[in-house]
Structure of MerR family transcriptional regulator:
Amino acid sequence: MAYTILEVSKQTGISPHTLRFWAKKGLFPFVERDSNGVKYFSQSDIEWVGWIDWFRRSNMSIEDIKQYVNLAMQGDSTAQERQRMIAIQHTIVLEKIKEFQAIAKSLEHKLDVYANMLSNGKDAMNPQSKDYVKCKKVCKKDTKKDKKRKSK
C-alpha cells in the first residue's frame, strides 16, 4: 500500500511540514512520486521515516543523515561505516543523558528548597527576598560546569 505525506504524518506524528522539509533535503530518495510529483511512501519507507526521526531527535545533522541514507542505499558493503555513524550518535546520546541527569539532580535540589520554603514561609530561593540563602554546593558545581562548557 502507498501512503501520502498526510497519511505518513498521521501514522508517525511527524508534521507534514517536517516530512516535506526532509524530502527536500534528500532524506527520502527511495520514495516514489506520481506524474504530478505527489510522494507515496511504502510501509518500509515509513520505517525509514522513523529512523530519520530518531536520528534527528538524537541531534544527528541533516547532512549526516543524508550520508547514512546514501550509504544504506549502497548495500551491505557500507555496513561498517553505518555502524560507526550509529556508534558516534550513541555516544552523543549517552553524554546528553549524563548531562540531563546532572540537571535533574539540580532541579531535585531546587524542588526540595521550595518544599522547605513553602512549609516554613521563607522565600530562600529569591535573591530579592530578605530570607534569601546563597547557593551552596550544588549551585557551585553547576557554575563550574557552566564555566567549563562556555570555555569549550
Notes: The chain has two domains: 5-74, 94-151.
